[in-house]
Predict the structure.
Amino acid sequence: MLKRKIQTFIEHYLTSNSNKMLVIDGARQIGKSFIIREVGKHLFPNFIEVNFVNDKNGPKVFAEANTIEKFYFQLSTIAGEKMHEKANTLVFLDEIQAYPHMLTMVKFLKEDDRFSYIASGSQLGITLRQTVSIPVGSLEIKHMYQLDFEEFLWANGFGEMATDELRKKYEANESLGENLHQRLLDLFKRYLLIGGMPDAVNAYLDTRNIVTVRKIQDDIQHLYALDASQYDEEHKLKIMSVYNMIPSNMENKKKRLVYKAIEGNDKRWKDYADEIEYLISSGITLDVKAISSPSFPLVESASKNLIKLYLNDVGLLTNILYQYNVSAILNDELSVNLGSVYESVVASELRAHGNELFYYDNKAKGEVDYIVDDYEHLSVLPIEVKSGKDYQIHRALNAFAANEDYKIKKGIVFSNEREVRSKGIITYMPIYYVMFLGHWVPEKIVL
């Protein structure tokens, strides 16, 4: 079983007697159902699982279950022998977004308090916007992502004690020894190929066969395409057009979406707003918004129409770009520019660790790959990602850091270089240290 960070969060919820229902939200195929099932079966002798997507496409037992009495009756027809007391019975409502009326029912199920509950959702953001009477105070939504690089290390034999020691090195701005650096860099490059989708990671661990892994990644992308087919033909085609152009966009200098390139005419952001929102809300893409005059907090000055989109998993991207040619990544082929791949993995790491994503775009001063809120210093943190030997060349970052109006305390450049060192307020770090760059949360604040 792959160890996931969210496991502890789920365990705490299920033993806390919360008055809200926890909904684990995230893209399809990232392991939501599996981890809930594993934790739930461990903690509750009576584990009841209802998959609403399967029910909607099949018997439709819960299609009309719009009161708690109707819900309990239908539940008893499929799992009556497991319906006991709250302390020993957990009901897992899988893919709750398939039946929007079940989201409205959450409040009444929690008030009735007959059983323990937990739910999962895909494309939940879309459903919530389209559903009336959502009991916001009765839901606790926790976003889940595919395995991040630290979890990938755990899957490859690194224990938590080892990664805790690596974290201490990162926090102290210390470099690793050459042997450990090379080992981590090799695993990082393998992560670029495999990504963090649990089925792909398990296939890699079982077979070490990239062909098997790529087949799974193909299937996942096909599933994402099928999900889009629930819309009418016009919306579906637009969704797929935007999604399919993301990898080629990554090879462009600017990397942001060019709307007129989607259908070859003078379209604008508003013409694709719904389709882009679908791709973001479903979790299959990550959005990075433009900032031209950064100030904390960044959300106040973000541009909603100048955005970059990244695939949610770096393994899906490298499958499209290189398919079975692993040497492009493992052997640092000079003819291959890995900039888009490195940027993609940093985007997914930053998002998985709780950061909203922005980039700096200034016509006069250039572009910085990422800027995130620095809550500890009430400032912003600029981040550059370099895949080649020219990691010390970053004119836009220099100009950004030197601007006194921005009040920058620190900037980071990630690259393949081993040594951690600082030059002014810019710190150079090995790329694998991105696994520790998270949203700042203090242990305790007493008022």
About this structure: The CA atoms of residues 67 and 186 lie 54 Å apart. The first strand starts at residue 21 and ends at 25. The chain has 18 helices and 13 strands.
